[in-house]
Write a structure and sequence with these properties.
With 115 residues, the chain is of the alpha+beta class. It contains 4 helices and 6 strands; from the N terminus they run ββαββαααββ. Strand 3 and strand 4 form a beta hairpin. The termini are close together.
Length: 115
């Protein structure tokens, strides 16, 4: 588990998210709202799809916001969860990361590279 994972606010620009993903060599980010609660997950694939979609439809990817691109259906886990079950859940849902929540707060993230 990665403690204190990098996050991005749901109102941030997609460009900002892409910069963070590239700078830190990540495969995605946990998205939080203004109060720090988990609001979604943004994967590098979500970013690629959004940029290509904007270009294809003569749009400007600069106007895209994280909230418009992120996956809003977030499956979380707790620090006490069995890592094998977390990994099986990730495989079943084809998601590469799980925010780790304790007492309603984000305390870490399990990603496929941790398993």
């Amino acid at each position: 588990m990665r403690r204190k994972p990098l996050t991005i606010n749901l109102d941030a620009s997609l460009s900002e998210a892409i910069e963070i993903i590239f700078e830190y060599k990540l495969t995605g980010l946990t998205v939080t709202d203004a109060s720090g609660q988990v609001a979604g997950i943004l994967s590098e694939l979500d970013c690629i799809k959004a940029v290509l979609n904007a270009i294809y439809h003569d749009g400007d990817p600069e106007h895209s916001r994280v909230r418009d691109v992120m996956c809003k259906e977030v499956v979380t886990c707790q620090p006490s969860d069995d890592i094998v079950q977390v990994a099986e859940s990730m495989l079943a849902s084809r998601q590469r990361r799980r925010p780790v929540i304790e007492n309603g707060r984000l305390v870490g993230q399990v990603s496929s590279s941790n398993v």
